[in-house]
Write a structure and sequence with these properties.
There is one protein chain. The protein is an alpha/beta fold and 187 residues long. The chain has one domain (4-146, 154-181): 3-Layer(aba) Sandwich (Rossmann fold), CATH 3.40.50. The protein contains 6 helices and 5 strands; from the N terminus they run αβαβαβαβαβα. The protein has helices at residues 4-14, 38-45, 66-76, 93-107, 125-135, 162-181; strands at residues 25-29, 52-55, 84-87, 115-119, 141-144. α2 links the parallel β1 and β2. The longest helix has 20 residues, at 162-181. The protein is globular. The protein starts with a helix and ends in a 6-residue tail after the last helix. The mean pLDDT is 95.
């Protein structure tokens, strides 16, 4: 039987969120829904992020790659093309972080990056942060900026649906699998 304390511990562990703040880059982990890019766009519009990096080749229900849908959405929201970096090959969280880190190294250089906002689904934030920590230099401060879209699992009610419980418990299993393979950094 699930207890309140168990739910609260899972929620505290997975659902990480920091207040918006100035960062050098907003790093968006792709997913098949648009909400993950919203915090990056908000940071850009508020003058809190100079650039947005979008990573992910997964597909939206209409067959378009995540990176393209996210890029087009950001451009429609007023983010200029020269403020967008796109990594179109990553197919999972490990690759998002690894390929994105290489793109940062190649295009921007790590010396000018002191902080990055991690934009990923709320229930996925812990693994996104830990995977980024594995691939990003230690001097880079990570800021958790999950979306709060209508279709996103929220920390205050994820357990109220079978789908929400299943997604959260699967995420705990994925964190374990990543840890066993050495794919996570400390966070």
């Amino acid at each position: 039987m699930e207890t309140f304390e168990t739910r609260a511990a899972i929620t505290r562990f997975l659902f990480v969120e920091d207040p918006p703040e100035a960062v050098d880059l907003a790093f968006v982990f792709g997913s098949p829904s648009i909400s993950s890019i919203e915090p990056a766009i908000a940071l850009f519009r508020q003058g809190l992020a100079r650039q947005i990096l979008i990573t992910g080749r997964g597909q939206f229900p209409d067959g378009q790659p995540e990176w393209r849908v996210y890029r087009d959405h950001a451009r429609a929201a007023g983010v200029p093309e020269d403020a967008l970096l796109v990594e179109p090959e990553a197919s999972n969280t490990f690759e998002n972080a690894a390929f994105g880190a290489e793109l940062i190294r190649r295009e921007l250089g790590w010396d000018g990056i002191a902080s990055i906002a991690i934009c990923a689904k709320p229930f996925h934030m812990r693994r996104a942060l830990m995977t980024a920590r594995r691939h990003f230099p230690a001097h880079v401060r990570l800021v958790a900026r999950p979306p709060s879209g209508l279709g996103d699992l929220a920390p205050d009610d994820w357990w109220q649906s079978d789908w929400g419980r299943q997604r959260v418990l699967e995420e705990l299993g994925r964190i374990s699998a990543y840890a066993l393979k050495g794919d996570l950094g400390g966070y």
